[in-house]
Fold:
Amino acid sequence: MSRVCIIGAGIHRFGRTDGLSGLDQGVFAVRAALADAGVSWTDIQFAYGGSDSAGNPDTMVERLGLNGTQFINVKNGCATGGSALFSAQMAIKSGEFDLGLAVGFDKHPRGAFDAKPAEYNLPEWYGDAGFMVTTQFFAAKIMRYMHLYGISRRTLGMVAEKAFMNGVHAPHAWRREPVALDTILDAPMVSDPFTKYMFCSPGEGGVALVLASEKKARELGVKPIYLAAATMRTRPPASFEVFAPSIDIGGGTATATRLASAAAFEIAGIGPQDIDVAQLQDTEAGAEIMHMAENGFCNDGDQETWLAEGRTRINGQLPVNTDGGCLACGEPIGASGLRQVYENIVQLRGSGEGRQVPDSPRTAYSHVYGAPGVSAVTILKR
Structure:
């Protein structure tokens, strides 16, 4: 099997961009990635693209060029971007292709996501009872976790404080002003224990990555970032997931994230202790905390000490969400998982400026999680 490399990365800033469609932002990201890789659209042999609410990604060929390039659409909840990347790397790993593209974009309307029960094979009464409101689900999940493992509400606030502090230094971030911890904790409550600063917002943005075989990267004379692992998993029995109608008390600890993470580390031949920087799904502040443990970086409950000691800050033991994550960048579903990988490429190239992790990181990890319980993980090496 061919070793997979990422040789180009492009991003359209996240947030709100009046006058541009989601597709416009995706095309912008593709052109930036092609320029970064030093290749043209006519060189690309295939593409996988994801969008949740901004149209079919394959229609961007009208802008990029009608040359018959194979282009496949991907839609997989918040894991759409990670799933597009997983699919693209498989095409190169198989040896059938040498140069391809993964792209994701979205332009969500203002307000919370409006999921429908039928989209997740649930009865209408489930929505009528309010169970489709994701803010309530995430609040219930973290309240249970806080009770089981002794996580304080102050620690939730520290996750958000770190996110906004990191976002200041990320040109692509939406929220680029620091927010004081007391302001975060004292802000209006959305769903207990989360205040408004502890949730991400649906937004806009686009990200594209150019993938190549190792042979092709050498031919192009490009210094690549190696895709050491890319995995995607769905939920196992008894896991507590978005839109899961019930939870099995005393059930197992397996989750889609734990499965995807374990598989990624096995493929890459390394462990959590070998990762220098990580981007973890932080739909809300509690998600980052729970995902630290689910991805194997600490034990359940250790997050209280990790955050208090600053271990996940830029200069900490394991910098997490160095561009501010979803909390600072917002979450355009199609682009969000690819943004994490883009940020890791920036870190491995040493071009993060004010948010750059010190000591030249060599390994980087990204994890995205979405409804109704799907996770995608990637590990990069340089």
About this structure: Residues 366 and 373 are 17 Å apart (CA to CA). The longest strand covers residues 4-15. The chain has two domains: 4-109+204-226, 126-201+228-381.
